[in-house]
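User: My collaborator sent over this chain with a note saying "see what the structure looks like." That's all I know about it. Can you take a look?
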Amino acid sequence: VIETLTEKEIVNAGFSFVARDPTTHKACEIIPLQPESEAEKKAFNDAQVDNDRKKALRAEAKKAAASNQITESEKAKNAEIDDLLDRSRVAIDMPALVTEDVIFMSQTKLENSFICQPQSRNLNNRIFGGFLMRRAFEIAFSTAYLFAGSRPHFIELDMSCFD
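Assistant: Without extra context I'll predict from the sequence alone. Here is the result:
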């Protein structure tokens, strides 16, 4: 999240956890969460409402893709992306005119290398997805902190798939 006078979400990434059977490589049944306190129940219900909304949007997008149509939410996202690109065109085409407070995305790149130890493997003897997600979050947090100049605020995790 970029903090200005008003907060605006610029980029988001989603993650989800699944369990795979080591012999069939198919999804395993996961014991569902059982919220106990009122606060947990409220958070659980809020997340369920949000998940249902996202499922409906994905179903709408899938239906639109099957009929080669663009959904209203995709039109709005495309318009916002076009607006961002239009505003950045001067910086891209004529970098000498850019003010000092502008940083190009190519200048915000950080890299990290690590060796995966045996305790980071899953049942299929492959690197554990949660381990990768943690490393991705740590490097993203560091990059955001380094270039924003303040502590980034984590909002949420969403859908992700490991193939």
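A starting point for your reply to your collaborator: The helical segments are 38-66, 72-93, 129-148.
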